[in-house]
């Protein structure tokens, strides 16, 4: 007995001592938070989180590889306990939510009739599944079976439907899906995702420069879920009220319905649901990620800067906008006239962005009131230049900056935007064929000009302005003088403009843009009497600060005024400085500036977090102007099963009415709910290759 | 030499620790859902069992038998194996991090697992000499690994099969294990 006791005590003492020594000798430093986090988890070692045991899961959480919501068994209770250890606000953890990215289902055509085991993974083993679409849902619901929380069910259309309330973001459905259709992501991950050629994208969604999920928000409108439609738009475009009014909607040019009918009036639907949310005062909750502790300065509060500010704030960064004008909005505030985009409406869009906690300082100009050195000294970790293009391009007519009565369109429209006196003569000429020219023309009509001319060097059909704008000019009595080249100003003795002389053009060989080059005809001089002449032939960025020797900003590279950037990351020659919008290239559309703002936000976020900045190889690059670069096989020549229904018209102020001709009241009006629903139901909810035919409802 | 080969075959196939002796079932069911984990577990068992076999055999011959303390064998083995696994884990973490990354997470799971304990006790019961003990301590876990990896392969297929709800997961797993056990019974009488 004594031996036994002694042996046990001896063994115990030896083992204990050895382990004690070993723990000192073989000590490996481990983050003390791992043990603390492990105590908050369920402790069941169940492996439901995807890691081998609770300790491994805790280590992954501390390393940031797993979200604090990783523990499925512990659920929200354990996430709340983990959050303070990880330095996050309680309840501020970003929720992981599953999303189905395929809208195919029963409607998707099949290659063959599959009669095997009713399981997606089994079906995918046979020629990658029976569906013609290589990335479409196979419809056997492996994800539904994999979900332990009843958050997934097979919908009536043969595609899984996620119940966001029940989804805990465990990722079981994503692992079960052989096609990568179920995607469990945090809101931040969705913001950072850009269209890939492997995604399931309708042609309109591929074309939109802001990459809005168009079929999804129209589907919400069909279901009368206007607030959800608005939130879907807000995932990609933080200025939906404004875009809904002024966007030239390149998406509609790609609308598949146009092959058998007229395209869906996508932009009017965007405007309808956004207006509905504001008019009804609907409560919408936009998720913001926990604070990252980084500060970003945005120089220029135009569309691109506002978009970048919105997305950076949602990614958890502190954002401050520095604006040189008294109001935010940039060119869409000071350039787009009141009758197209009322200031009150734009302010509502901007307020929603600022409500997320974005700081603003107006009335300060970069290079005068502050510079890069002071921003870095002020604790900003990255700087975004979205300073727009506020200088006008020259028309190369002698004395254009001396003759009284010649006004650059930017200054003309800005005066109007600022509410300053903007005297204009009875006869006004505008040179240019873009949207700025149209704005200058239509503003002149409203300021009391009796005769307004639009001069353009090519034909009217070659004008880059929106078709609806050109049409509206016709409605308002504006006269177009195409194929002309102004050569000199005619002035009176005091230097005031009395008219211009121009040469008529004829069309020559096609140039690089594919349009025929205008060539002036000698001896065709014509005189046009004018009181004012407005230059609207293009704008450049005022980047004079980059020329000042000895400043940090002088390291920026510029080309024709705009700041040179990497087009994917928007990073400049200075690693912590980025640029987006008009200041990073030729001036473009509002919606393109919004898309660029999100790209810049992604670039800045990846830079600050030390992650890979370049886009993946599979990035989808669509040229929405030339309609090129779509995913092969998604642009059809013809479609079947579509009736010609015609699109809804644009309600507008009566042409010739007092409001239309003499006030700045908004011309285009919002469609009624009835009209919006009618239009939404024309949407075929396209995906890559399949779409709803008109008899789709009866098929179910 | 022939004896050792016979002993190995007997330990791997005829007296397979999992399917014939039915020891070590928790990791058998727990880690067989994925091939990766099954392979990791198999390697960890080989590693731990060989060490445990050697240490317990030495303890038995040096202390327990001469002192006539065989009756506290079980408790002594538990203590020693537990301490040993802990020690090995600490050692690997510091000295061979690559091996720790592969095995380490499974080590605490098999601390005095019944297969480990069982083989150590078999070694004593059969009165093996040192070399025989070594072969047995290598061959039994090899048999464990064989059964585990085969089983994981089958379970990966079962997941995509159509299984009635009541039978899913562990239930069908146990039935499958039963069938595998039956087929291994075919080796009986080979030696």
Task: Report on this structure.
- The complex is a heterodimer of chains A (700) and B (191).
- Chain A is α/β, with parallel strands linked by helices.
- Among the domains of chain A are: 28-93, 3-methyladenine DNA Glycosylase II, Chain A, domain 3, CATH 1.10.15; 96-185, Alpha-Beta Plaits (2-Layer Sandwich); 295-389 and 551-609, 3-Layer(bba) Sandwich (FAD/NAD(P)-binding domain), CATH 3.50.50; 392-540, FAD/NAD(P)-binding domain (3-Layer(bba) Sandwich), CATH 3.50.50.60.
- A 5-stranded parallel beta sheet of chain A has the order 7-6-5-8-22.
- In chain A, helix 14 packs across helix 24.
- The mean pLDDT of chain A is 89.
- Chain B has 191 residues and is an all-alpha fold.
- Chain B has one domain.
- Chain B is built from 8 helices and no strands.
- Chain B has helices at residues 2-14, 25-30, 35-67, 73-95, 97-103, 114-125, 130-160, 170-185.
- In chain B, helix 1 runs parallel beside helix 7 and helix 3 packs across helix 4.
- The two termini of chain B are 15 Å apart.
- The mean pLDDT of chain B is 87.
- Classes of the chains: A alpha/beta (700), B mainly alpha (191).
- Chain A binds chain B through residues 3-4, 7-8, 11-12, 15-16, 18-19, 22-23, 25-28, 52-53, 55-56, 117-119, 121-122, 142, and chain B through 37, 63-64, 67-69, 71-72, 75-76, 79-80, 83, 86-87, 90-91, 93-95, 105-106, 108-109, 159-162.
């Amino acid at each position: 007995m004594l031996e036994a006791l002694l042996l046990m005590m001896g063994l115990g003492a030896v083992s204990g001592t050895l382990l004690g020594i070993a723990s000192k000798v073989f000590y490996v430093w481990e983050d003390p938070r791992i043990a603390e986090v492990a105590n908050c988890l369920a402790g069941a070692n169940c492996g439901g989180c995807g890691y081998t045991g609770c300790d491994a899961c805790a280590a992954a959480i501390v390393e940031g590889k797993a979200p604090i919501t990783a523990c499925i068994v512990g659920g929200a209770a354990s996430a709340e306990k983990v959050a303070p250890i990880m330095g996050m606000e309680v309840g501020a953890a970003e929720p992981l939510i599953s999303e189905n990215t395929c809208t195919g289902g029963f409607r998707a055509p099949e290659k063959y009739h599959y009669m095997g085991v009713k399981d997606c993974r089994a079906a995918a083993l046979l020629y990658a599944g029976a569906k013609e679409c290589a990335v479409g849902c196979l419809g056997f619901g492996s994800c539904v079976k994999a979900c332990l929380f009843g958050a997934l069910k097979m919908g009536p259309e043969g595609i899984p439907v996620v119940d966001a309330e029940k989804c805990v973001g465990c990722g079981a459905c994503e692992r079960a899906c052989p096609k990568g259709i179920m995607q469990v992501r945090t809101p931040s991950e969705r913001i950072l995702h850009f269209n890939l050629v492997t995604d399931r994208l309708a042609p309109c969604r591929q074309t939109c420069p802001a990459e809005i999920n168009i079929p999804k928000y129209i589907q919400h409108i069909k279901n009368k879920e206007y607030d959800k439609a608005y939130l879907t738009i807000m995932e990609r475009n933080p200025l939906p009220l404004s875009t809904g009014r002024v966007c030239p909607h390149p998406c509609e040019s790609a609308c598949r319905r146009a092959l058998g009918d007229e395209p869906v009036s996508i932009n009017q639907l965007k405007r309808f649901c956004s207006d509905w949310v504001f008019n009804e005062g609907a409560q919408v909750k936009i998720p913001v990620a926990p604070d990252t502790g980084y500060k970003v300065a945005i120089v220029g509060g135009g569309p691109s800067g506002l978009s970048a500010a919105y997305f950076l704030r949602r990614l958890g960064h502190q954002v401050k906008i520095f604006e040189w004008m008294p109001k935010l909005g940039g060119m869409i505030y000071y350039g787009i006239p009141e009758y197209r985009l009322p200031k009150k409406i734009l302010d509502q869009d901007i307020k929603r962005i600022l409500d997320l906690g974005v700081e603003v300082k107006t009335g300060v100009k970069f290079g005068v009131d502050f510079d890069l050195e002071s921003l870095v000294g002020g604790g900003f970790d990255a700087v975004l230049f979205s300073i727009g293009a506020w200088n006008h391009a020259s028309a190369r007519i002698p004395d254009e900056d001396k003759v009284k009565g010649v006004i650059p369109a930017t200054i003309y429209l800005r005066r109007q935007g600022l509410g300053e006196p903007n005297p204009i003569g009875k006869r006004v000429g505008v040179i240019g064929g873009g949207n700025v020219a149209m704005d200058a023309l239509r503003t002149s009509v409203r300021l009391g000009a009796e005769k307004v001319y639009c001069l353009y060097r090519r034909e009217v059909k070659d004008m880059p302005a929106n078709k609806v704008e050109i049409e509206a000019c016709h409605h308002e009595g504006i006269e177009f003088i195409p194929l002309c080249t102004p050569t000199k100003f005619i002035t009176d003795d005091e230097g005031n403009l009395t008219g211009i002389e121009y040469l008529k053009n004829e069309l020559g060989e096609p140039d690089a843009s594919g349009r025929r080059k205008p060539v002036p005809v000698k001896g065709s001089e014509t005189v046009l009497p004018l009181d004012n002449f407005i230059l609207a032939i293009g704008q450049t960025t005022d980047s004079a600060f980059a020329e000042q020797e000895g400043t940090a900003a002088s390291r920026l590279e510029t080309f024709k005024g705009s700041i040179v950037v990497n087009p994917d990351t928007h990073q400049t020659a200075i690693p912590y400085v980025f640029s987006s919008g008009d200041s990073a290239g030729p001036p473009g559309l509002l919606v393109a500036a919004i898309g660029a703002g999100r790209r810049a936000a992604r670039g800045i976020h990846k830079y600050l977090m030390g992650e890979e900045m370049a886009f993946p190889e599979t990035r989808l690059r669509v040229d929405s102007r030339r309609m090129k670069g779509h995913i092969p096989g998604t642009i059809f020549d013809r479609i079947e099963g579509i009736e010609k229904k015609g699109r809804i018209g644009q309600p507008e102020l009566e042409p010739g009415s007092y409001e239309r001709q003499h006030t700045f009241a908004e011309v285009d009006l919002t469609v009624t709910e009835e009209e919006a629903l009618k239009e939404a139901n024309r949407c075929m909810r396209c995906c890559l290759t399949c779409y709803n035919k008109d008899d789709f409802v009866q098929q179910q | 030499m022939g004896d050792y080969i016979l002993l190995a075959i007997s330990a791997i196939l005829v007296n397979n620790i999992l399917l014939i002796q039915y020891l070590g079932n928790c990791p058998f069911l727990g880690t067989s859902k994925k091939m990766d984990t099954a392979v990791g577990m198999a390697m960890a068992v080989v590693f731990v069992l060989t060490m445990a076999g050697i240490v317990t055999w030495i303890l038995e011959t040096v202390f327990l038998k001469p002192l006539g303390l065989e009756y506290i064998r079980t408790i002594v083995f538990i203590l020693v194996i537990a301490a040993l696994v802990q020690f090995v884990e600490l050692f690997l973490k510091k000295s061979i991090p690559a091996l720790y990354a592969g095995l380490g997470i499974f080590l605490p799971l098999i601390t005095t697992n019944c297969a480990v304990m069982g083989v150590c006790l078999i070694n004593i019961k059969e009165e093996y000499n040192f070399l025989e003990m070594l072969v047995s301590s290598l061959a039994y876990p090899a048999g464990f690994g064989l059964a585990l990896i085969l089983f994981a392969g089958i379970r990966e297929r079962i997941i995509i099969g159509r299984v009635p709800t009541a039978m899913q997961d562990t239930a069908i797993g146990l039935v499958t294990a039963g069938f595998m056990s039956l087929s291994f019974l075919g080796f009986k009488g080979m030696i």
